[in-house]
Amino acid sequence: MITPHDESYRANADSTSPSSFGNRSPEPAESEAEGVNGEIARTHELLFKPRQVVELRAFKGRETVSGYFDDGEALIQKAVELDGRGYAVYVTVNKVDPDLLARAKNRVRKVYRQPTTSDTDVVRRRWLPLDFDPVRPAGVSSTDEEKGAALLRARQVRDYLRKKGWPEPLFADSGNGAHLLYPVDLPNDPESLRLVKGILEALAFQFSDGAVEVDTSNCNAARLWKLYGTTARKGDDTKERPHRTSRLLEAPEGAAAGEPVEREKLEAVAAMRPTVTSREERSRNPGRNGHKEFDLAEWIERHGVPVRREGPWGQGGYRYVLEECPWNGHMDNAAYIVRFANGAVAAGCHHNSCQGLGWRDFRKHYEPEAYDGRDGYGEEFGRARSQEEAPIPEPTPHPTLAEEAYHGLPGDVIRAIEPHTEADPVAVLANLLCAFGNAIGRGAYFPVGADKHHLKINAGLVGPTSKGRKGMSEGHVRLLMHAVDDAWEEERVMSGLASGEGLIYEVRDELWGVDGKGKRVLKDEGISDKRLFVSEPELARVLKVITRETNTLSPIVRQAWDSGRLRVMTRNNPLRATDAHVSIVGHISREELLRHLTETEAAGGFANRFLWLAVRRSKELPFGGEWDDVDTAPLVKRLSEALEFGRSAGEITWGETARDAWRKIYGPLSEGKPGLFGAVIGRAEAQVVRLSALYAVMDESYTVEQEHLEAALALWDYAEASARYIFGDATGDPVADQIVEALRAAGAEGMTRTEVSHLFKRHKSAERIDGALALLLKGGRVRREREETTGRTAERWYAR
């Protein structure tokens, strides 16, 4: 099933209508204020001291209002008014400089470029805010089930911290999730920032999973916080995902109220955040904390390590919180394994009785002979060799996009967007080319023999989870595309790939049948607009779906890229589509991509119909840039003209300035390359043709000239370098990859055929191992020597 994509990049709809689903009214307040403002008054009383200056900031679409209040009653009344007008209302929770009151004293005003509270305006930290956010599509409210999971997770964390000696917090329903607010008394300095960040990351490490995340971004001192008693509005107010009133659920009373958490208790929790081993230590002993090629997930599964929760962690890392500590049986989220972004692996348990025990001890608990070899991999990876014989390879550098790729209109669009987004310019460019190529439909095409290459492009954006800012890359492009073709952007952009049938359904032909009287009747009008742009934020989920035996998604995606005639060959399924024009942009982490592409047939047929582009965060923009200040009218005009040209252009051909260059590069482009790297770039010449034609059409040219080909080659070179960066020299065959790793470890001594077989402890047949060795031999990855013995001839294998 494909569902409409989220609208989070645009202003949320103004919706103030009440919902009969969820909590719409605050419970009776315990403060003196009564009626509709009671919950807000209670929140103000608990969070702030009398006459404390507080910023109130509220958002509605693109409009922001801000004011500073030392009059609590005035703040309450203004919050009630703004909430009633559909604003999302927030306050600063930490103590701010009283002089800020002069910016807008006990009133609010619209802010455009005027200053609001920054971290340097905070005098002292008074609260440590913990936000438990249900995992759900961006830009929508949570379901009751999702919010319930967040409330339960908050209670678990509260109970956990209570055992650590922390006082009782304020416990609140944020409307979509849960909040805990712990009183603290900390200076606003870099050390406090590191302390708070460490606490959030330690708690996220232990308690975040695929259902609920502990937000680690709430570490800055000027963080805005939901004003309880006001409404949480994300997306439209629906029965399943309603707007709800936020509210306080529990607050400590008596002497315990407002008691700050002692600093040593804060530091004790922050210290539970795993830290990576230094480069020097890993260089001295590369096997001690793992290795980038070590398949940690497979090792955990093979040894039956009980995992309570798992998920991405930090900038490109991945962590497992265990059901039970292997050493002393602790079962309170204390035991863990983590792989850091640089490939290092750490493990441990937070209890004092387990201090000093790490990954080496953990692995030996399950695999006693793991470190018999000096490299730390033992029998699993063959013979060890010395540091001199096995230097740690330099990591493949992150690719760089050549300036030629920013040719013409695409380059001008990217240069306009770049200062106002944290997304990688490569990701923005990919979104632009894919969106434009889809929006023009089947107008422009490039003929190659009897085939017509319509200008549809698929792209996979590969980068660290969340920190790669992959999702940010489409927002500005979607705004521009909405300006030139609102019908396409609103109706033909979707997400949720799950099956081939679901994809066909969104571009299906009309369906005729025969009624009971034998009369021909129209059963389904079908879809008249055959354009479909799929923005898939979780491409890993799609790759998992493909592994299901009966799933038809992979062949349908291949058909969509190749021609546009889509059909599932089953007798009972009449769905079909002709002239479908489908483009896909997906987001995935490198670890997920490697895991799933090497485990499915997708590596052979699915992957080479995508441009795989390594992306990363380009910069930090705490205030999100100033896109509203950009005069987009000239870009919109040029995009609109190029779009109209592309829809009617018809055949695009080689121009005189590009013919010689294409003739020279065609051979090298079409040469096959070994391994998984070769599999994913296997359609280089076709991809370059489509990209070249796209650049030509965006220049409103009927011919591909040298500058268009150079732009396309620059982007393709980046895609090829990204594939090398992502996949390295992996073969796509896990057995072959493990053999290569073992042969490298064996060094000059090599391994006999029998020793190779022993790598798999009789879990792989001789035929399967022979096939893997043949693949490696054909690809030039290994060499074989024959040794005469008193019996039959023996083989010894070496890595090249």
Q: How far is it from the N-terminal to the C-terminal residue, by CA?
A: 47 Å
Looking at CATH, the homologous superfamily of the largest domain is: P-loop containing nucleotide triphosphate hydrolases
Architecture of the largest domain, CATH level 2?
3-Layer(aba) Sandwich
Give the proportion of residues in helices: 25-40%
Structural class: alpha+beta
Overall residue-averaged pLDDT value? 82
Indicate the radius of gyration in whole angstroms: 29 Å
Q: What count of helical segments does DSSP give?
A: 25
Tell me, what's the shape? globular
Please, how many domains? 4
Annotated CATH topology of the largest domain: Rossmann fold
Low-confidence segments, given as residue ranges, are 1-36, 276-292, 373-395
Largest pleated sheet: 6 strands, mixed
By oligomeric state, this entry counts as single chain
Task: Please give the number of β-strands.
Answer: 34
CATH class of the largest domain: Alpha Beta
